[in-house]
Design a protein that fits this description.
By secondary structure, this protein is mainly beta. It is built from two helices and 21 strands. Strands 6-5-4-3-2-1-11-10-9-8-7 form an eleven-stranded antiparallel beta sheet. A hairpin with a 2-residue loop joins strand 1 and strand 2. The longest helix is centred in the first third of the chain and has 11 residues.
């Protein structure tokens, strides 16, 4: 592989369906091994071990599937959470978001490099990327992160620096495409569901919210509709004396999911529970018109690019996808209001987490 081939992939065909990366991660003097296994678009497993690769005792394990997130560690009870539909946890989809940021001057291209003998291209952004958030780079700013990405869109290295101090370095020591099985993406036993668990229900393709819904008049070209799901997000906070609102930040939504190979588009509409009101403005968003939805926001992200709007008297509508931001915006602008209906579970009911 030549250094020239280490530029970002231009199409999803250039990206792997499944991959496994072993990272050596250093935070100060604390060094650990992270083994990330992903089967796109919905499944992942992140195992963290003590010490340098291959690592020692397992300190945490997190597995994600469609509608489910499971965690396990020696110091806490194993836990199953029902979560709204999204892509695999910890899977960075760098191609679309980083390309957009380079075009807008929110990221810098530092040129070719090599990590553990594997060619990559180095970029700089304004902060850590592990969560997918893309903070724009500001010259002379107090914080930056350098990332090196290979020709298949895999993150090989991240160096997060703040106030001149290296806070975290994550460096790949092995990258491979792997043969996965159903057991790969499971903790291995039936886990208890916490009292703050969420809920996801597979509903019919004609299900609508009672107050009305926003829909596409035509399918998304090249994509297949996977289906519709309702969700109530889990409560991840904790009680704070009498001031605690158990529904603060939780969302009740209707999701329509479209897939094209490893690419996914989510059309979500709903409302915040409790007294949360409309979706708060995203710190990295830019204002944009979204057709019938009215004024909205566009957000560049390293997992899911997003366009969203708060609709008076209705709630919020959000379109998020692993595709370029312009495509996400175009889909959002094509949504039209429909009359209200009912939410009808599919029959027979699904018993597995995966679609």
């Amino acid at each position: 592989m030549s250094a020239r081939s280490a530029t970002l992939p231009t199409t999803p065909d250039s990206e792997p369906v499944s991959y496994q990366v072993t990272y050596e991660t250093a935070v100060g003097d604390d060094v650990s091994t992270e083994i990330l296994s992903v089967h796109r678009p919905f499944e992942s497993r992140l195992e963290v071990r003590k010490g340098r690769p291959p690592g020692g005792a397992v300190t945490s394990l997190r597995v994600s599937r469609f509608g489910a997130l499971e965690t396990k560690s020696p110091t806490a009870s194993s836990l199953h959470l029902t979560v709204p539909p999204t892509i695999a946890a910890s899977d960075l989809r760098l191609r679309a978001g980083l390309t957009q940021s380079l075009r807008e001057g929110r990221a810098l291209d530092l040129g070719d490099d090599v990590v553990k003998g594997r060619p990559c291209r180095r970029y700089v952004v304004g902060g850590p990327v592990a969560s997918g958030s893309l903070i724009p780079y500001v010259a002379g700013g107090p914080e930056r992160a350098e990332v090196c990405v290979d020709a298949r869109g895999i993150l090989l290295e991240e160096r997060w620096v703040k106030d001149g101090r290296l806070l975290r370095q994550r460096r790949a020591v092995a990258v491979e495409e792997f043969d996965w099985s159903d057991d790969t993406f499971s903790i291995g036993n039936e886990l208890p569901r916490a009292e703050f668990d969420g809920a996801v229900t597979h509903v019919t393709d004609t299900s609508r919210l009672p107050l009305g819904s926003w829909e596409l008049a035509e399918p998304i070209e090249g994509f297949s509709r996977l289906g519709r799901w309702t969700s109530i997000s889990p409560r991840l906070g904790s009680a704070n004396d009498n001031a605690f609102d158990p529904d603060e930040g939780r969302q009740a939504s209707l999701h329509e999911v479209w897939t094209r190979g490893i690419d996914v588009v989510f059309i979500e509409q709903g409302s915040l529970l409790g007294e949360g009101g409309p979706l708060p403005s995203h710190p990295q968003a830019r204002p944009i018109g979204l057709g019938a939805l009215g004024a909205g926001e566009a957000i560049v992200d390293l997992r899911l690019n997003e366009a969203r709007a708060n609709v008076p008297g209705f709630g919020f509508v959000r379109v998020a996808g692993t595709v370029p931001l312009d495509d996400v915006i175009s889909i959002a602008r094509r949504l039209v209001p429909r009359s209200g209906g009912s939410l009808t579970p599919r029959s027979p009911a699904k018993t597995k987490d995966t679609p």
